[in-house]
Amino acid sequence: MSDHDVLKIYTALLPFLGKVLGSGCELCVHDISSPEKSIIAIENSATGIQIGHPMTDLANEMMEKGLYTDTDSVLNYEGSSKGKPFLSSTYFIKNENRLIGLLCVNKNMSTANTALSAIQHMLSSFNLTAPENSEYTETLDSPVSDILPHLVADAIAQTNVLPERMTLKERVALVQRLNDQSILSMKGAVKEIAFQLGISEPTVYRYLNRKNEQ
Question: What is the pLDDT of residues 38-54, one digit of tens each?
Fold first, then answer.
């Protein structure tokens, strides 16, 4: 396939890509065989470039440095035109590993930057920004009723003894430890502990008052 045929494939795609990406996204194809008038196709012109315009200094620099030999593209670098900010990307068009052209995408960031600034101002105005460092954290994905059984089960598992094989001393120690961890203060804790240990709720309360029970 000739270089011209390869480039024609990309130029034919520009109208489609222009409609998909929107009017704020400029696309152009360069034919590097004519650097002084390299642009052979353009869609959604936003920077003012036209067909027949030369390659930019950055495009020339990319070619001189041979960036295309190790990668197929350079993504999301900053640019500007007529005072407007752009986020640009370049795809290296090759024919049998020879660089023959560039597909450039230039996104006009003016509207996005304005929206971002407005959002940041709103967050700041209502103190909605999270502090960089905080000693406090909170788990919000599960209610206490869902967490409680896991806390009790974990405490039992840490003893390495099945509830039905625990001695009285071990059960008392477990209940006391759960109390020290403030788990007993949770709603439904006594009922859950009694259920998992296979004892009655009054027995749980008795264990709370028998620290020295052997």
Answer: 999 999 999 989 999 99
Q: What is the pLDDT of residue 83?
A: 87
So what's the pLDDT on residue 214? 44
In a domain, 213, yes or no: no
Same-domain check for residues 103 and 183? no
Amino acid at 119: I
Contact 177, 152 (CB under 8 A): no
Tell me which residue has tokens 């430890």. Answer: 177
Beta-carbon neighbour count of residue 50 at 10 Å? Answer: 10
Judge contact between 97 and 71, C-beta under 8 A: no
- Among 66, 85, 110, where does a domain finish? 110
Could you tell me if 51 and 40 are in contact, meaning their C-beta atoms sit under 8 angstroms apart? Answer: yes
User: What's the chain's length in residues?
Assistant: 214
Query: Residue 15 — very low, low, confident or very high, per pLDDT cuts 50/70/90?
Result: very high
**132 vs 127, higher pLDDT:** 127
Domain count, the chain: 2
Looking at 110, 134, 161, the residue that finishes a domain is 110
Q: Provide the β-strand partners of residue 84.
A: 81
pLDDT tens, position by position, 69-88: 999 999 999 988 888 999 99
With respect to residue 128, please indicate whether it lies within any of the assigned structural domains: no
Range of the domain at 105: 3-110
Measured CA distances, 89 to 78, 117, 158, 201 (Å): 9, 24, 55, 68
